[in-house]
């Protein structure tokens, strides 16, 4: 379409339908944790599509082409000049006649894929979209129920200057301290100031942010973290982070500090020994060339070099403090998940190796959830919902399902055959029609007409045709059709066999 107004109308329609689809998804009552995560991810996908279309729509309203087109159709040179209007109308009609489903075709498929409910039974357990969502989580995370912090625990235990190496449960307890203040306050200042701690706390924060985004797709984690980072910057600039100020005091006032090497020495002898090293000489030369004051090697407490640029240690200290503050902030929102993780670890520690293996095998199998007891009304509603979808009204096969359409056409089951002798009963298909001449319904109809159900009347379905054929056979001397009464044999309750006429006479007399 070349009309910007039609494109805007279509975009508005798609946004409104996405809004209704979002309401449908959010109104679902998830039966499990997995269903809740899937619904939220589907809702997040719809929100992304709404956002993209809103940006596109806003751009079209600001486009000058819209103003030009509006002027072209609203201000003709003459009041009676409607050539532009009819030209656009013809283009619209031509487009819709050529592409009747162009507006809703692809969009309908997209909307149906988002609204389709997955993972409701064993058949849908491995739906393609749900499988993609499940791949976002590791096996230890169990679809976002628990945190997988084993790698972070291993890194924590290998930090320099960490003398106490806790177990995994004790490590989770240390993270739970985020409710009472910044995490890892138990570490000495030397450990928190190392490069190992900076790398550890950065990886921990990255994992927590990733986990929060995967388990809470409808929450804007980036905005929350940006607010937390702004709060940290204000606290850092104001000097309100006392625990990191103490580390800075150690940098400048405790021990013997070498500005050239950016390192602190606890003993005078060690400090004096390093003065002749190549690293110190290069650092001293660099300081002198930059015009900064160097440390006094003869003094007991040398004055640190002043610099307008932050040192590597200061940058490391700020990064460590920043990621510690942000990780503490996000852990405060994951306290319940952290508690569940601890409970799960304690439970697994109490299992034997065989029980753990059996548990893994059971988790690999699809779960069969026992339905709650239902009353009669719910059972009737469920039966109505479980009715087989059969819009073509095809006959049911041996498995209770509609037969294939090609088999339906092969046997001609779509052709109707009506029999007036059988009270206008309709038989579907030639085979059923031919079989009914030997069935009780047709035999009863022939008896009601006083005619025998012999092969002479095969294929005769009209009453007048049957009577006319009987009269013709009578005139031709075919008396056997009237001797049917003596040919037909009946059996009484005692097992005696009589012809039909004798049987009816004895029954009238009350003998039988």
From TrEMBL:
MF annotations from Gene Ontology: RNA binding; zinc ion binding
Name this polypeptide is given: C2H2-type domain-containing protein
Keywords: Metal-binding, Nucleus, Zinc, Zinc-finger
GO cellular component, one term: spliceosomal complex
Family annotation (PROSITE patterns): ZINC_FINGER_C2H2_1
Residue ranges constituting the C2H2-type domain according to the UniProt record: 258-280
Pfam families documented for this protein: SF3A3 (PF16837), SF3a60_bindingd (PF12108), SF3a60_Prp9_C (PF11931), zf-C2H2_jaz (PF12171)
Originating species: Cylindrobasidium torrendii FP15055 ss-10
Residue ranges, compositional bias (Polar residues): 293-314
Sequence segments annotated as region (Disordered): 289-318, 360-386
